[in-house]
User: What shape does this take?
Amino acid sequence: MTRLTFHGHSTCSLETDDGLHIVIDPFFGDNPVCELSVDDVEADFILLTHGHFDHIADAIPLAERTGATIVATFEIATYMEGKGLTVSPHHIGGGVTYPFGYVKLTPALHGGIVELPDGEGFTTLPAGFLINLNNGKRFHHAGDTGLLNDMRLLKGMVDVAMVPIGDRFTMGPDDAVKAVEFIAPNVVIPIHYNTWPPIEQDAEAFKAAVGSLAQVEIMTPGDTYDF
Ligand code: NI
Ligand code: MN
Assistant: This one.
């Protein structure tokens, strides 16, 4: 069993059977809907979808305190290595086997700037993650992205998917329904909405629109989902 905990916005963590903690897009302190301080978060691996502030804001303090390995695109990994952190660079389409499973970077259509001090020059492609966990379950975090026809390639490969529905900076609910159709996960969890007024959305309306395409789990910050 893997325990997924949602921390609001796009931030989540996975705890495996072996007690490993994987944190995706750590955004705690400045996250207006987050219940946690970064000081209270455990991490063995930190996965970063892209360099925008609302996805990497707390990556450095979390990695410094825990010694966690940062998994990200080559450019973000190079930036983090320059800050003295342990990194594992990937690039789109490339996977690596970790103690908890196999992680592959998936394409995302979005902005690539690294919004941390001295981040200029590390602009990169944004990404999502496909994680084949050791317990056989397959988890996908789409990152920040518009609808991509390439999402069809994930069909049959995902049990639980997190997809953005906020609109404005990512897919909105209508395109997110298309993404669910393309990816065909068993379970979909909407993310990247209701953090601030510009990305307010009605998750219940999204759930209704998804209908029988997938089971929709609406999570509020602090909620857990076991799979
Ligand atoms: Ni972004
Ligand atoms: Mn974002």
